[in-house]
Amino acid sequence: MAKKLASERLKMEAAQEVGFADVVRKFGWEAATTKQVGLIVKEMIKRGEKALLEGGQGE
Q: 24, 31 in Cβ contact below 8 A?
């Protein structure tokens, strides 16, 4: 359950970053267009890559 909540939080943070969080909050994920979801996924990938790079700096 905690993983699901963390995943939802990360998705909402990414949606906020690309400007679609209000749509998701008001109408749910099913109201987001394919383009909007693509932008959210792109943002999440960018964050993941950044986290990997930052995590490897301490080695």
A: yes
Kindly report the average pLDDT of the chain as a whole number.
Answer: 89
58 vs 35, which has greater pLDDT? 35
Which token pair is 35?
Answer: 């383009």
Supply the pLDDT for residue 15.
Answer: 94
Mark residue 57 as left, alpha or beta (left: phi above 0; alpha: psi -120 to 50; beta: remaining).
alpha
Two structure tokens written together for 3 = 């993983």
Q: Is the pLDDT at 6 greater than 90, yes or no?
A: no
Where b means 16+ CB within 10 Å and e means fewer, 13-50 reads: ebbeebebbeebeeeeeeebeeebbebbeebbeeeeee
- Indicate the domain borders of the chain: 2-55
